[in-house]
# Entry
Amino acid sequence: MTSDDFSDDPIDDVVPEYSPDEVQSADAEIEPTFDLSIFVETQGILCKFHCAGRNVEWTVPKTVVRRAHKAIAIDHLFDILGAGPIIGYQLREAVTNNPEFLMVPRAVNTLTDRITKALRQVQKALALPVLGAERE
# Structure
């Protein structure tokens, strides 16, 4: 070790200083999230959606994959859903029992439409006025 390995400069110049307001504003920028579970079962594909204390379940029928090159694996579907927010909500947790299960494009479109519908229902429920609020 040489004397050049250490600096006599104060560490204050290296460590950024943040005010509590800046830390809180960074936390406020976090988008709302939702969780999604997809379970492949004998009777179909069970989807469980959770967002803002609301739970919704639905099934998507299993379909025969004739063109595997057009099908999407559930694991890849989670990557796509997690790539960016959907109407302002970010995928937080994704769980499946069969990540390599292939879904045909039609089933993927149905699933994403159903997720969007569930998110809109959450938005609508959160935007409802409180009963007994002032009326004009």
In short: The chain has one domain: 31-126. Residues 31-126 form one domain.
